[in-house]
Every structure is written in C-alpha cells, then in structure tokens.
C-alpha cells in the first residue's frame, strides 16, 4: 500500500499571486550529488517523473503553515509550497529541513525573510526577544504604537509575531475588546482596530489559525467594525449572524467539512468587506491570507467530490418531480455556487471537478430544470450550463447528439437554450446575449475534435442543421413574410440582430451546411426584408449578412442572388438613404466596390443590367462608373473571342516556350522554300492559307471603332482616384496613334491569313507549335515598320529587348544556310 504520509501536492505562486497546482506525488529527502547537498525530491504518482528537485539551502526561509503546508522562496519571484495529505508527513520533512539548517523543529519559520541593515542587526543582537506590554485596557495605546512601529522592519515583525504566538496574546486582546464594548470605550475600540489590522499585516499563518478559530473569529470581526476613520461603526457581525444564513440543502454529515465552509465564508468576508483596501505597500503583506482561503477552497471541493452520497442525493432531488419548487430552487442555487466556487481551482482540479459532475448526470438534470416554469431556477441553470460549455463544449455536443436519438426536437437541450434566448423578457436581452455566445461556442468548428474514426464537426453540424436550425430561424422567418418587418419594436429588433449575428458566423465558418440551408429556405431574401427596418443597427446586420455571403465569391450563392434579384432591397435602401453620409451609405458602397475590385463578373453584369439607371447619377464616388466599365470590357471580350484568345495566349504562353516546340518551329522555318515567301509575309502552315483575311480583320476593325467612341469616357474614369487603390481594369488594350493605319496597310500588302493582323487563327503567330518564337512574337505584336503593342504589360521591357535580338539573329542564320546550300 502506498505511504500516504509523504503524499503531497506541489504548488508555485504565479504573477497574479495565485497558487498553480504542479501535480501530486511523493516527497523524500536525500543527498543529491549534482546539487551538492540535501534536497527535497517529489516524484509524480502517475508516472514517477520528477516534479520537484530543490536543495535545502542553509539560508532559505522555510515556513510551516496550517500543520500540513511548507512554503519557501527559491528566487525573488519564485515561491513554492508543499501541501501534505497528512500532518505526520509534514512534520517528518519539516524536521529534515530544520536538521539541515540547525533549527529547532518547534519553530514555524527557519530564517529571517529579509536581510536587515547592519545597524538594525547590531541593535537586535542585544535584545534577542521582543517584550510586549502587559495586556491591559490602560496600555492599548502603547500596544498599538508597538505594532505600528514593528511593521516596517521584517525582523521586528517576525519577533512581534513570535511574541504574540507564545503568550496567547490575541485571546487576551479579545477579552479586553468585550470590556471596551461593555463600557462603550470608543477610544479603546479604535486602538484595538489598529492592533488587529496590524496583526493581519504580519502575514503569519499561525496567528491566522488563532484568529480564525471558531471561538475567536467573530470577536476579530467585531474589532474591525470600529474604524477610526468612520464616524459610525459597521454592523458586520449583525450581517453574518442574522442576514447571512447557511442553508444546508443536502445534510452534510462531516463536521470538519461544515466547519471549513463556515470558516472560509467568514474569512472571505473579512478579506472582501471588512479589511480596508490594502495600499500598494501593504498588498504583499496579505499574501498568506490569500493562500489560507485558496487552500481552504481546494479542501472543500475535494471533500464534497469524495462524498458520493452527498452528490447522489443532490442530483436525485434536483430531478425528482416530487421536490417542491422552493427546495429545487435552493438545490439549483447551491449547484450554481458550487460551480462558481470551482472557477478558482487550478486546471487539473477543475477537470476532476467537472468530470465528477458529468458522471453524476449534470446535463440530464439541467435539461429537466430548463423545462420548468420558475424563471429564477432557469436562470441559475443557464449559469451552470455556461460553466459546462466554457469548460468542455465537446462534452455538451456529445450529450445532445445522443439524446437526439431518443427525444423529440422540442425537448432537446440546445433547443431549450434557443427558446430561452428567444423568450428572454429582459428589455436589454442580457440573458439572450449570454446564450447566443454559448451557442456560438458550440457551433464553432475551431474547438471541435477530429479523430481517426469520426469527425465531430461533420456529425454535430449535420445534427444542428437538421434538428436545431429551424428553431433558431423561426422568429426571423415569422417576422419577414411581407415586404417589411411585421414587428419592428426595439426588443424584437435586438433579438433578430442576435440571430443574424449567429447566422453570419455560420456563413463564415460552416461550408455546405449553411449554404444548402440558405438557398433551400430562401433565407437571404427574408433577411433583406429587414433592410426596411426603422432600426439602423438591424438593417446593417442584414447588410453585413449579405456582404459576408458575397465575400465568399461562391458562384452557387451568386446564382441564387441573381435569380432572386436580391440586390433590389439593397439598392432601394441606398436610394432611400439619399445623400446622407452615414454608415449605411458607406457599407453599401463598400459592397459594390468589393464586387468591382474582385471583378466578380456575374454580379457585375447583373447589377449593371438591372440597376444601372438607378445608380448612374451617383458621381461622388467612382464605384458605379467603375462597375460599368468592368461590364463593358467584359462584353467586348465576349463579342471578340479572338481578341480574348490572343490576350490569354500572350499572358499564359509568352514566357513559357517548350524547347521541343522551338526546335520544331525552327526546322519548319529552315525547311520552307524561300520562293514561297515574299518580303513582309509571315510564315504559316499551308492549311491556314484557305482563311479569308477579311474575316479575321473585321472584328478588329469593329473593336477599334467602338474603342475610339468610348476613349474619352474611359480615360476620364481611369484617371480618377480609385476607392480601393488598385489599378482598374486589371487588363487593358492600348494602341499607339498609328496602330489602325499600320494594321490596315499591312493587311492590304498581304492576302495571307497569317499576316500580322490576324491574332487568333489556329496556326497563326502566337499559337503554340506553329512557327518559330521570334516570328511568333513579331507577328503577334509588330508590323513591318516597327513595334506596335497590342497588349500593354507594365513589365515587358526586358522581353521586348529579347524579342528584337531574336528578330535580328534568326534571319541571318537563315541567310547563312541558304548561301551554304
């Protein structure tokens, strides 16, 4: 059997002055060669790993607290504590520490906490102990002055604490307190306040154990009622004895547990309500008080968890239909306080706590409680549910999916939560906001687990959209049956805004589930009805929902929007807003600007074809004119597919020529009979000579004529500042002043379809595999008289230089070959 005497928990003090649990193990003391001295070793009981290895330094101050705690500091900001399961084990290790340091094991502290100056040390050597004045009413002022003068010096604080412990001084002071109260001696009561407050600042566990004992604690609180800075005394004892009632909803059989609960409540009350707020210099003087409360809470939670009968009775009475309403309310409030209590625990302890509650059936119990009529009980149950969701959302998801196989949708736990959100009677919807946050946590894929056998995201989202989404969207669908919201009061608007916020989150984080739901249920059209709301925040929520959908650039969504003409409510709201410069105006313009900048072709065409007349007069931004330009360029490319083909060829293949293709084209060039070519003609395969030159040139001419007509308008739009800061359009055709005449003259000089004016024919220059690279490039972008750029690439200078070099070298090589033959 494991020796429980040496079983300990290791704690470290963090920056927030809270104790962090580092694990449970067994402590031993032995000589460690590496550290050159006797050391404390703690090995984890789970896997035997080393939790602590600390050399017992001769000058380190070790403190023994509450019979089962040893606390010390290893560095300026690194405090350690060992919490023993049994007092005997603590005493054994304490003796080892005292043996190494040469101290008497009866002391509770082995060293002075802070080094004193040489002068103070010299003074104190002549007076090894501190002699307290006799505890009498007439000497209270002298005692108060002694306590106040000792606080600045750590060494004197230590000696004062030892004197107070050894002489049972605190109990004598509390006897004088009763005399002062009986005599109504206000001056004496003020001195006692200063003395007791000073004793708290000594930060000594042994003194706290005396002060917080059952017989003394109420008198200590009584002394702290008489603050000299207040004109009237406080009634703390009256509150604790008459107002604050301890309700034992389930009988606690363990007297030690009951006493610990009473003590912790009162000490917490002293810390929060009775003691004045400590100054910056006094804050660290109360660290032992924080530790006292913390370790008490850990003990209480541990003792309650181990009492299986207590928790079993608690959950049995909670779910029993025979339990009366008042009793059930007390049980739920106890469970709520119990969960709130656990928030102060360290993660490991909190995990064990919630695991115990889960095993006891807390979620089925909550489901029963949430279905009850009592609003206070439901509110407390909601708070408990929030603790569970924040602790482990996966546990809640697993439970609701299992219960869906047995129960109807109406009584599912998540649907009950949604109904409470919808039916919140608070005008500000405080409870609904909390519940919406919990639902958001539950449907967030970021905290869903994926294992080898199953994916929680797929399973839970499938369940949620099948069983719960219709409950969430019911208020939205009920309120948007007409062209405007049927109810437009403030509370309804707030509720719909919350629902829209959750739906917007779903659009962003869920994929096909929400897409199928929106398209099949026509959700977006119903949401856009809310654009007509008199509440601007609700109209903006609806717009934000649509903007999030458009931001996905999903053609399924885009086709749905175009088919149902879902820009109409937005355009109508924009026009109704008039010239007002507000958030609605900016948000709508930003949405159209996003469509323009991202060049979403389907939506651009839809907006211009259907709403251009309504938007063409908006000239204070260039967004709508930019959209029109995008649309026209898109239509021109559709009307001239050969130009579009040429553009894609130049863009996609200009810089990537296959070496084998180049060799084939050169071979063709050199194998071509010189007699077959005339000056200025490009070489093309014979099969292409059947094409009519007029057929190829006709679309170019038409395109140039239209371009000329629109030239002035395009320049004006392109020169204006773009809202997004990006160049628009991303691809543009630009012609030099002589382009048209050069193309025409070149066309008349040659009847071959492969002339430089034919950009898109199958075997023509620019098509892979037709002719050599130099000829291909020259035929595509040059005429005989010089270079004329059909396509303006901003970074083409280097490539153009390379093209010119190749144009000069290849004809020379051709000439050399002909001469040698």
UniProtKB/TrEMBL annotation:
InterPro entries: ARM-like, ARM-type_fold, EVH1_PP4R3, P4R3-like_central_dom, PH-like_dom_sf, PP4R3-like. One of its GO terms (biological process) is DNA damage response. Residues 767-776 have a biased composition (Low complexity). Residues 671-681, 793-807 have a biased composition (Acidic residues). One of its GO terms (cellular component) is nuclear speck. Pfam families: EVH1_PP4R3, PP4R3. Signal peptide: none annotated. One of its GO terms (molecular function) is protein phosphatase activator activity. Residues 671-699, 726-821 are annotated as: Disordered. Belongs to the SMEK family. This is SMEK homolog 1. The gene is PPP4R3A.
């Amino acid at each position: 059997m494991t020796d429980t005497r040496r079983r300990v928990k290791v704690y470290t003090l963090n920056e927030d002055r809270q104790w962090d649990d580092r694990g449970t193990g067994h402590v031993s003391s032995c000589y460690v060669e590496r550290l050159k001295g006797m050391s404390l070793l703690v090995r984890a009981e789970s896997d035997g790993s080393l939790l602590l290895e600390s050399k017992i330094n001769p000058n380190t101050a070790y403190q023994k607290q509450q019979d089962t705690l040893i606390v010390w500091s290893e560095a300026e900001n690194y405090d350690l504590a060992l919490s023993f399961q049994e007092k005997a084990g603590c005493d054994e290790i304490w003796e080892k520490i005292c043996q190494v340091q040469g101290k008497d094991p009866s002391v509770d502290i082995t060293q002075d906490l802070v080094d004193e100056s040489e002068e103070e040390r010299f003074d104190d050597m002549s007076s090894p102990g501190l002699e307290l004045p006799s505890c009498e009413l007439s000497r209270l002022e002298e005692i108060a002055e002694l306590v106040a003068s000792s606080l600045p010096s750590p060494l004197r604080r230590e000696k004062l604490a030892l004197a107070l412990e050894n002489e049972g001084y605190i109990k004598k002071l509390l006897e004088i307190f009763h005399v002062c109260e009986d005599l109504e001696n206000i001056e004496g009561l003020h001195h006692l306040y200063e003395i007791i407050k000073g004793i708290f600042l000594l930060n000594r566990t042994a003194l706290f154990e005396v002060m917080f004992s059952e017989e003394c604690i109420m008198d200590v609180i009584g002394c702290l009622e008489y603050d000299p800075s207040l004109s009237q005394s406080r009634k703390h004892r009256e509150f604790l004895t008459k107002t604050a009632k301890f309700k034992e909803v389930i009988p606690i059989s363990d007297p030690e547990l009951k006493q610990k609960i009473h003590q912790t409540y009162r000490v917490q009350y002293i810390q929060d309500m009775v003691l004045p707020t400590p100054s910056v210099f006094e804050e660290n003087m109360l660290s032992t008080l924080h530790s006292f409360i913390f370790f008490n809470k850990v003990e209480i939670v541990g003792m309650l968890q181990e009492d299986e009968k207590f928790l079993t009775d608690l959950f049995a009475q909670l779910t029993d239909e025979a339990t009366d309403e008042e009793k059930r309310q007390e049980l739920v409030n106890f469970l709520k306080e119990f969960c709130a209590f656990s928030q102060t625990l360290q993660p490991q302890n909190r995990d064990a706590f919630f695991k115990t509650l889960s095993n006891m059936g807390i979620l089925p119990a909550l489901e029963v409680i949430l279905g009850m009529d009592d609003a206070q009980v439901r509110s407390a149950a909601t708070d408990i549910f929030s603790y569970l969701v924040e602790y482990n959302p996966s546990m809640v998801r697993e439970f609701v999916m299992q219960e869906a196989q047995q129960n109807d949708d109406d009584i599912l736990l998540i649907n009950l939560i949604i109904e409470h959100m919808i039916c919140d009677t608070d005008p500000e919807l405080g409870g609904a906001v909390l519940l919406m946050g919990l639902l958001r946590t539950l449907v967030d894929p970021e905290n869903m687990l994926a294992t080898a056998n199953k994916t929680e995201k797929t399973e839970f989202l499938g369940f949620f959209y099948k069983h719960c989404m219709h409950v969430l969207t019911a208020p939205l669908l009920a309120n948007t049956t007409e062209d405007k919201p049927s109810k437009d009061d403030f509370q309804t608007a707030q509720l719909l805004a919350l629902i829209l916020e959750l739906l917007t989150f779903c659009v962003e984080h869920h994929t096909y589930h929400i897409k199928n739901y929106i398209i099949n249920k026509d959700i977006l059209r119903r949401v856009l009805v809310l654009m007509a709301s008199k509440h601007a925040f609700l109209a903006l929520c609806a717009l934000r929902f649509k903007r999030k959908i458009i931001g996905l650039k999903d053609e399924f969504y885009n086709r749905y929007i175009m088919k149902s003409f879902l820009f109409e409510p937005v355009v109508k709201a924009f026009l109704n807003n008039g010239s007002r410069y507000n958030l609605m105006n900016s948000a709508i313009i930003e949405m159209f600007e996003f469509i323009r900048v991202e060049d979403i072709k389907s939506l651009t065409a839809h907006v211009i074809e259907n709403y251009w007349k309504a938007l063409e007069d908006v000239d204070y931004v260039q967004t709508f004119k930019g959209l029109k330009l995008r649309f026209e360029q898109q239509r021109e490319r559709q009307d001239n597919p050969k130009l579009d083909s040429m553009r894609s060829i130049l863009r996609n293949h200009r810089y990537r020529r296959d070496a084998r293709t180049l060799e084939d084209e050169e071979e063709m060039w050199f194998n071509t009979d010189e007699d077959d070519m005339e000056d200025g003609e490009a070489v093309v395969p014979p099969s292409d000579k059947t094409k009519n030159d007029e057929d190829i040139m006709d679309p170019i001419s038409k395109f140039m004529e239209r371009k000329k007509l629109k030239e002035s308008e395009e320049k004006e739009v392109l020169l204006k500042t773009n809202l997004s800061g990006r160049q628009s359009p991303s691809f543009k055709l630009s012609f030099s002043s002589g382009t048209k005449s050069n193309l025409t003259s070149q066309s008349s000089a040659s009847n071959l379809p492969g002339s430089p004016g034919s950009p898109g024919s199958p075997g023509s220059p620019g098509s892979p595999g037709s002719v050599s690279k130099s000829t291909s490039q020259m035929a595509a972008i040059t005429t005989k008289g010089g270079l004329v750029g059909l396509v303006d690439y901003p970074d083409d200078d280097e490539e153009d230089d390379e093209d010119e070099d190749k144009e000069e070298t290849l004809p020379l090589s051709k000439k050399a070959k002909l001469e040698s033959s």
